[in-house]
């Protein structure tokens, strides 16, 4: 793991991507800091940080796009996968290298609250905990980018798909307001969702009987529940999707000053999920 | 040492490997021979654990490459068809990285790297970026990475492709040197190469093992397929009547029937040497001068063509049915 970590880190700096990533985030963070905190005199750096999140949507795909896609394109994954190192070590080595790059601008941000403190009142606890939440949120984004990069051979496709997924994650909070809340629409969306799952099962197992039976069971169950108690379907989709609005955890800390421990665990579990999925992508190629 | 059992690999509907089984013993040079697309690289990629097989098993020193990948991979050094090089590293950095990847203990690492790079004569370029190296040096860097740490089994996929003749000779010498205490498996579609360096040849065609043995054994397979070239100073009818009395003659091809002398080619059904002796005695007793007699041995090339073509014909036959 150490060998891969060191090589990745070095390659981020020799290829300029690492330097560009750090510079980009630091400069944008610095601009927000200057405008909101230094000129307008707002004492919370956490507020400026909320603006920097948008920058991650562009910067993270650039950082994560090449991690597996380029290896596959250049066939260097052949070296890694035929060496006596486990898949977990390969994936973690690469992930930790990306996180290390991302930690550098976060550490630089740690200086900003101290600068505010020099000028007067500062709220260090809020600022530092929101920098920490910002770091974890970035780690979630990087893990998602790494997973998407492991699916493709082309770094460009990896970058674009990561950008799209991150944008969706970022916008989900605002998009939720446009989802219909009536019981009938909840039922329809649920049925479409189950049908998609059944289609996926069919795609994986190639067994029309199992997929068909599952589809029928889901249909009957949904309609039966709807007839018995239709109020269950009201706001159903909105309630479920609200749990996936991951930026809320950060905004709670940065803007409402609520330190949401469960939210941080939610970030951690998302990171673990994406790392796990990345490992599984490689396991799948190794097994038939 | 390596056991490959009933390996099958399908790419969608295309059958790349079809129930391939063989065993590899310690301390010899094995050669995979086959036309393009025969499944040589696929077999090697499965043996090294890079891709999965659709069914079948590979055991390396008794460790399955699927269930105990780390133990199995530890005893393999692999040079794929395209050397897996990181272009943004120098040769030395790359070899040190590979050494660490192969879990060579820290105190031995730089000694091992030096040993490998001296062996493939890389010392002159050790501080250059891999991006800027020529094809030959890139190939050597890949080879150095494969032999690094001197694992028991060294697998080389077409190691001499794209090299100049001098480099080819050097790499062959190197392979022979390595074979003294390692098992070397290499693939090639060049017959002369396999014939020259391999102790044992596995001929693969259309994903099937169509023949295996030492190069001598394979040539032996062709016994009865040798032929004899003759130039006899006599007319065709007399020659034919003499030849009719000799056993083991399968077919006579008349090449040139001049007035006083004939060129002919005799296919034999038993040892060409014996038939050749019989022919010379027979003509001598008739007092007919034989001005030229020459045994044409079937080469590995003939066997290769015969084996690979016959497997192709089988396939065509099957599809027709």
TrEMBL record, chain A:
Q: Which GO terms describe its cellular component?
A: membrane
Entry membrane topology: Multi-pass membrane protein
Gene Ontology molecular functions: ABC-type transporter activity
Where does it reside? Membrane
Pfam families recorded for this chain? Answer: ABC2_membrane_3 (PF12698)
Question: Could you list the residue ranges forming a coiled coil in this record?
Answer: none
Enumerate the UniProt keywords alphabetically: Membrane, Transmembrane, Transmembrane helix
Signal sequence segment: none
Give residue ranges for domain ABC-2 type transporter transmembrane: 41-228
Q: What is this protein called?
A: ABC-2 type transporter transmembrane domain-containing protein
Organism annotation:
Anaerostipes butyraticus
TrEMBL record, chain B:
Q: Which UniProt keywords apply?
A: ATP-binding, Nucleotide-binding, Transport
Q: Which Gene3D superfamilies match?
A: P-loop containing nucleotide triphosphate hydrolases
Domain ABC transporter span(s) in chain numbering = 2-231
Pfam families the UniProt entry points to: ABC_tran
Top-level division of the source organism's lineage: Bacteria
SUPFAM superfamilies membership: P-loop containing nucleoside triphosphate hydrolases (SSF52540)
Which GO MF terms are attached to this record?
ATP binding; ATP hydrolysis activity
Query: What InterPro entries does the entry give?
Result: AAA+_ATPase (IPR003593), ABC_transporter-like_ATP-bd (IPR003439), P-loop_NTPase (IPR027417)
Family under the similarity heading: Belongs to the ABC transporter superfamily.
Q: Which PANTHER family match?
A: ABC TRANSPORTER, ATP-BINDING PROTEIN (PTHR43335)
Name the record gives this protein: ABC transporter ATP-binding protein
| The species this protein was found in | Anaerostipes butyraticus
């Amino acid at each position: 793991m150490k060998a891969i970590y060191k090589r990745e880190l070095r390659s981020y700096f020799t290829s300029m991507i690492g330097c560009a990533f750090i510079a980009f985030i630091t400069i944008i963070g610095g601009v927000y800091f200057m405008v909101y905190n230094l000129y307008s005199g707002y004492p919370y750096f956490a507020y400026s940080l909320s603006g920097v999140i948008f920058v991650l949507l562009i910067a993270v795909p650039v950082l994560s796009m090449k991690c597996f896609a380029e290896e596959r394109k250049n066939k260097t994954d052949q070296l890694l996968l035929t060496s006596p190192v486990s898949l977990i070590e390969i994936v973690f080595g690469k992930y930790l290298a990306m996180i290390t790059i991302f930690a550098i601008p976060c550490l630089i941000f740690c200086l900003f609250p101290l600068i505010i403190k020099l000028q007067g009142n500062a709220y260090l606890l809020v600022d530092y905990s929101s920098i920490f939440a910002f770091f974890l949120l970035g780690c979630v984004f990087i893990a998602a980018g790494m997973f998407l990069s492991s699916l493709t051979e082309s770094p460009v496709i990896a970058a674009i798909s990561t950008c799209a997924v991150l944008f969706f994650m970022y916008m989900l909070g605002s998009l939720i307001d446009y989802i219909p809340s009536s019981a009938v629409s909840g039922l329809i969306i649920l049925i479409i969702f189950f049908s998609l799952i059944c289609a996926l099962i069919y795609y994986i197992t190639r067994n029309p009987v199992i997929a068909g039976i599952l589809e029928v069971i889901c249909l009957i169950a949904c309609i039966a529940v709807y007839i018995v108690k239709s109020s269950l379907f009201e706001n159903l989709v909105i309630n479920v999707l609200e749990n996936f609005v991951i930026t809320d955890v950060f905004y709670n800390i940065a803007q409402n000053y609520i330190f949401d421990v469960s939210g941080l665990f939610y970030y951690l579990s998302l990171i673990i999920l994406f790392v796990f999925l990345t490992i599984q992508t490689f396991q799948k190629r190794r097994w038939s | 040492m390596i056991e490959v059992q009933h390996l099958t690999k399908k790419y969608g509907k295309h059958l790349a490997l079809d129930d391939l089984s063989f065993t590899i013993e310690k301390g010899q040079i094995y050669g995979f021979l086959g036309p393009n697309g025969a499944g040589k690289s696929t077999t090697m990629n499965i043996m090294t654990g890079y891709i999965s097989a659709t069914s079948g098993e590979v055991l390396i020193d008794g460790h399955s490459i699927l269930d105990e990948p780390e133990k199995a991979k530890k005893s393999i050094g692999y040079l794929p068809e395209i050397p897996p090089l990181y272009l943004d590293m120098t040769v030395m950095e790359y070899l040190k990285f590979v050494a660490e990847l192969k879990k060579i203990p820290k105190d031995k690492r730089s000694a091992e790297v030096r040993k490998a790079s001296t062996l493939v004569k890389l010392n002159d370029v050790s501080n250059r970026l891999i991006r800027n190296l020529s094809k030959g040096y890139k190939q050597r860097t890949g080879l150095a990475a494969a032999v690094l740490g001197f694992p028991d089994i060294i697998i080389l996929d077409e190691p001499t492709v794209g090299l100049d003749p001098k480099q080819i000779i050097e790499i062959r010498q190197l392979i022979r040197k390595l074979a003294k205490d390692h098992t070397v498996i290499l693939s090639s579609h060049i017959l002369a190469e396999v014939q020259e360096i391999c102790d044992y040849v596995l001929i693969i065609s259309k994903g099937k093992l169509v023949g295996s043995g030492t190069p001598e054994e394979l040539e032996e397979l062709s016994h009865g397929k040798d032929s004899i070239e003759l130039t006899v100073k006599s007319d065709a009818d007399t020659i034919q009547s003499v030849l009719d009395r000799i056993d083991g003659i399968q077919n006579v091809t008349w090449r040139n029937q001049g007035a006083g002398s004939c060129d002919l080619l005799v296919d034999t059904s038993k040892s060409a040497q014996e038939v050749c002796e019989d022919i010379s005695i027979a003509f001598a007793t008739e007092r007919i001068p034989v001005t030229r007699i020459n045994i044409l041995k079937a080469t590995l090339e003939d066997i290769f063509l015969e084996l690979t073509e016959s497997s192709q014909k089988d396939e065509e036959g099957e599809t027709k049915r």
